[in-house]
Amino acid sequence: MAHHRHELSDAEWAVLEPLLPPRKTAGRPYGEHRRMLNAMLFRLNTGIGWRDLPERYGPWQTVYSRSRRWCRCGLWDRMLQALQSELDAVGRIQWWL
To answer: What is the pLDDT at residue 95?
Structure first.
């Protein structure tokens, strides 16, 4: 996968991948999580609308749907907590200003 600006590096992906839900589900399997995360990051960093996502990320509706689903189920909160715990354990978070 070509690395574009605002997308996850291989090292960043290695940290986040284990925190994501399995791709295989009882119903239709999820599409590639990394591409979806990269699309979400691209949108957040550029401020574009969902409909303006570059085609390399696939249908904007899929990205939007995944983002909403992950919000509703609390995935973003769990990911933040896990990352904070990992970084705190190795002294890489300052909890004061």
So the answer is: 84
